[in-house]
Specification:
Structural class: mainly alpha
Radius of gyration: 19 Å
């Protein structure tokens, strides 16, 4: 392994360790000594990559933001039913949150503004939902009287509520929870011809996906993972 590869892997390990600390203790109580120990490196190695705790938190938030955006963007631009793609993207994001401590911690930091909040992930999520509902409207998939603006507010409130509840119990992110939500919403949203067509459980097969395991690179893929997470090589 080259020196550059080791630096990348160390940075990724520090981000994951920091995320675990932020999730368990919050930004204020998370300590740099615990973060470096969790990554199996010295305090000096941590400071080689990050100037202070705020910089570590920003890196966690940035990695989470990129992962969430990648999950969301896969729902746009397809040829199939837009409502089905909206259902699928909510299940995809839920699986990502359930599997990846970096995403959970990054979203929480973003909401709390602990890392300076240079981005607004809640707003980005609303824009994703609104965009898919607007596409559904253009395709004639929404029932009479259903508007993308009002419906996006309902979906945003429901999915945000599930994410907040899941901080204490990850079962809220399990497939049955979102499936029940969509079973209630779809009959109100979709035109009759889509009844029984849009699957509230999601149309994507549930499988082990290395892409949702957070920025801990697999052997031979450290650089690729770092690029996806927007991490600089040092």
């Amino acid at each position: 392994m080259t020196k550059q590869d080791r630096a990348v892997r160390t940075r990724l390990a520090l981000i994951r360790s920091a995320a675990a600390q932020f999730e368990a203790h919050g930004y204020v109580r998370a300590g740099l000594a615990r973060i470096s120990a969790g990554a199996g490196v010295s305090s000096g190695a941590l400071h080689f990559h990050f100037a202070d705790k705020a910089a570590v938190a920003e890196a966690v938030e940035d990695a989470a933001a990129r992962a969430l955006r990648e999950a969301a963007v896969r729902g746009h631009g397809g040829d199939g039913c837009a409502l089905q793609r909206l259902v699928d993207v909510t299940h995809r994001v839920a699986r990502l949150l359930c599997a990846d401590v970096v995403v959970r911690a990054g979203l929480r930091l973003n909401v709390e503004g602990a890392a300076g909040r240079v981005r607004d992930l809640r707003r980005e999520w609303r824009e994703c939902v609104l965009g898919l509902l607007a596409e559904a409207e253009r395709r004639g998939e929404l029932a009479a009287g259903v508007t993308p603006q009002r419906t996006s507010a309902v979906v945003l409130a429901a999915t945000t509520g599930i994410e907040v509840l899941a901080r204490e119990d990850h079962e809220w992110l399990a497939r049955p929870s979102l499936t029940d939500l969509w079973r209630l919403l779809l009959p109100c949203l979709a035109v009759p011809r889509l009844a029984g067509v849009v699957d509230p459980a999601g149309s994507e097969p549930v499988r082990s996906d290395p892409a949702v395991r957070g920025p801990v690179a697999r052997d031979g893929q450290a650089e690729a993972e770092a690029g996806r997470a927007g991490l600089a090589l040092r």
